[in-house]
């Protein structure tokens, strides 16, 4: 178990008619990011979380509870270091990963290299020792998602989101010791904390210059070997963030891109295909402009 004996976060049923993303402004920032790595266990019992939380539809990557669980099984009962640079993503996956890490049988050290935002900040709270790199950030906010339905669906969603926010606040409260009212204010404001502020508020234990410097030759070699995100994926992510900002659901966004890529339903006729790409692209442009 965690050396700090952190509480287990409650598991909640995932509503089927909701869409879960990191906030659109955070997705836009991440779209410009060129640093990514496959999550998993390195040889020295280090787990790298350098991607969105949850499955990434663009790359087939993303950090999931299944992948972290496999990494932990590979590491065994040794002390581990979890290195985070992530915009967040799926709250449910974030809570599941938090629970996996807090249940690890040895010490868990968390290092925030760039930022731990949204669901990634939940994961960071599982650390027995949380260390912020110089210039890094921690971001906390309320649960964020898209809901489609009538007024009854929206009222039900608001009640559910209250429960989600309370569960997230419980995790922050248990790790930081900050009073609930102050935590809720930070979440309401979608707060980006500098490394020093994260330490001041109790979301981290120390600012560590060595994290920015790469720490040692092995760390620098690993960072140098990290493959950048391909330009076409960055472009798709930027468009995806713009569509999310317009309130377009993830399902609808994927459908648009699938149409542009020609990944249409087999039932479409050849005549329909003739104007298929142009129509899909124009629809996407009109949506972004609206």
From TrEMBL:
One of its GO terms (cellular component) is endopeptidase Clp complex. One of its GO terms (molecular function) is ATPase binding. Keywords: Cytoplasm, Hydrolase, Protease, Serine protease. GO terms for biological process: protein quality control for misfolded or incompletely synthesized proteins. Belongs to the peptidase S14 family. This is ATP-dependent Clp protease proteolytic subunit.
């Amino acid at each position: 178990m965690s050396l700090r004996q952190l509480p287990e976060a409650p598991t909640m049923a995932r509503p089927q008619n909701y869409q879960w993303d990191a906030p659109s402004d955070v997705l836009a920032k991440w779209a410009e990011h060129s640093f990514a790595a496959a999550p998993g266990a390195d040889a020295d019992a280090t787990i790298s979380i350098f991607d969105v939380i949850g499955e990434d539809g663009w790359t087939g990557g993303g950090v999931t509870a299944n992948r972290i669980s496999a990494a932990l099984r590979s590491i065994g009962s040794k002390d581990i270091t979890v290195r985070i640079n992530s915009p967040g993503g799926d709250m449910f996956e974030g809570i599941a990963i938090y629970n996996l890490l807090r249940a690890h049988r040895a010490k868990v050290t968390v290092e925030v290299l760039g930022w731990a935002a949204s669901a990634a900040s939940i994961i960071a709270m599982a650390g027995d020792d949380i260390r912020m790199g110089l210039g890094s950030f921690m971001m906390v906010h309320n649960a964020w998602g898209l809901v489609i339905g009538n007024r009854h669906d929206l009222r039900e969603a608001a009640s559910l989101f209250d429960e989600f926010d309370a569960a997230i606040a419980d995790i922050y409260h248990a790790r930081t010791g900050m009073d609930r009212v102050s935590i809720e204010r930070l979440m309401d404001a979608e707060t980006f904390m500098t490394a020093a502020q994260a330490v001041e508020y109790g979301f981290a234990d120390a600012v560590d210059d060595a994290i920015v410097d790469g720490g040692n030759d092995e760390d620098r070699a690993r960072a140098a070997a990290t493959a950048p995100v391909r330009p076409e994926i960055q472009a798709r992510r930027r468009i995806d963030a713009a569509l999310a900002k317009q309130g377009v659901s993830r399902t609808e966004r994927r459908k648009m891109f699938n149409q542009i890529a020609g990944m249409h339903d087999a039932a479409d006729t050849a005549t329909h295909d003739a104007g298929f790409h142009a129509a899909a692209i124009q629809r996407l442009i009109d949506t972004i402009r609206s």
